[in-house]
Request: fold
Amino acid sequence: MITAAHLSSQLAVNVLDPHSLLAAFGALGVGVVLFAETGLLIGFFLPGDSLLFTAGLLCTGTADRGLRLSLAPLLVAAAVGALAGSQCGYLLGRKAGRTLLARSRSARLHEGARHAEELLDRYGHAKAIVLARFVPVVRTVLNPLAGALGVPARTFTVWQVIGGLVWSVGLTLAGYALGSSVPNIDKYLLPVIAVIVVVSLIPLVAEVLRSRKAAKEAR
Reply:
């Protein structure tokens, strides 16, 4: 039975705060948020990276005595949400990707679309689809953009599954591993999340630097 207090806490949830989301909806909320962030253009502002890491941390029971998640259901929810969201975004893109982007007035969303298109042009479909998972906003717009640009469905599906599993499962397990090995990690939660987000960008930065170096050597 849903109590008035529980219902009130869900209605008062802050969608930009990972802890608030997890307290209100648990592992199921992780799947829903990842689906929205990767499959629906309106979800570009959602905190995917920090949500995954925080959720993994809470599976250890060290960050908050009042909130603990189970690792196995969390991993399933995260993977399903991330993979289903991307595939949904791709299918929406094939139907009306360019139209949906054109109707949006968000400068951040259009900037993400520009970066997504640059990724596809520079690195090819496979590498761009994987790298985009680690870049906020870009991972939202690349999926419908890939559909709109006619990226083959099989190619997109294979590489979004690979990238989606590495991103969702990897960040969750990173949070779990850190929470299991560092006592009182909750005291440093915000700095740690910031570091994790930065670290998640390393593959993209490394690839950009490698590509620039190769371009200079080719001149």
